[in-house]
Write a structure and sequence with these properties.
Distance between the termini: 37 Å
Helix content: under 10%
Shape: elongated
Radius of gyration: 20 Å
Strand content: over 45%
Number of strands: 11
Structural class: mainly beta
Length: 201
């Protein structure tokens, strides 16, 4: 895996465009599940979307995409995309967007972790269709501020004072958690992009 400083802007914009279909509702709270490691819970959710290549300008490195609603938009493709020459009109850009949250209970002696960024990426091999994966996230210590045992909801506060709510799945022993507990929270967003060629007739 190659370390990246940030998610490429073009990839982020393409993702937003592909998912802009009929509007999007706010995501429900993560449902945390036991990982089998004491004091650790994790949740992952994913969405898929696609857009069709409507035009390619190799000289100016621009790509025009059309989503399922028929809307088109042109994007500037940066030098981080190495195989633009293989992209053609009619190809499909398949995008998988995934986000995950991991919570680890910290003991009394563990130091608090200040917010730190995490970013990694990788590209498809030369013998595979053009594509790549970029993941970026943040890790920090958070503090449990409220627990609703009946509805299995937990509220925790981040280092900047922001509040977040998660739901404890049936495998999580919620009765062992208490207000004031510190958790090491790791939140990651990952985007995988793959080029799909139309089937030959």
């Amino acid at each position: 895996m190659k370390k990246l400083l940030a998610v490429p802007a073009a990839l982020a914009l393409m993702t937003q465009f592909a998912y802009a279909q009929g509007g999007s509702a706010s995501n429900p709270p993560f449902e945390m599940n036991n990982t089998g490691v004491p004091g650790q819970a994790r949740a992952v959710r994913a969405m898929k979307a696609s857009a069709t290549v409507a035009a390619v300008d190799q000289a100016n490195r621009t790509l025009t995409l059309k989503n399922k609603e028929g809307k088109t938009e042109t994007f500037k493709v940066g030098p981080d995309v190495k195989r633009l020459g293989e992209v053609a009109v009619g190809d499909t850009i398949a995008i998988t967007y995934e986000e995950g949250l991991e919570l680890d209970l910290q003991s009394a002696g563990d130091p608090s972790v200040a917010p730190e960024a995490v970013a990694v990426g990788d590209r498809a091999a030369k013998d595979q269709a053009p594509g790549g994966v970029v993941a970026a996230g943040v890790r920090a210590t958070v503090v449990v501020t409220a627990i609703d045992q009946a509805n299995r909801m937990v509220v925790f506060q981040g280092p900047q004072g922001q509040y977040h709510q998660v739901k404890a799945g049936p495998s999580v022993k919620l009765e062992k958690l208490k207000v004031g507990d510190r958790l090491l929270a790791t939140y990651v967003q990952a985007v995988a992009v793959e080029l799909e060629k139309p089937a030959k007739k």
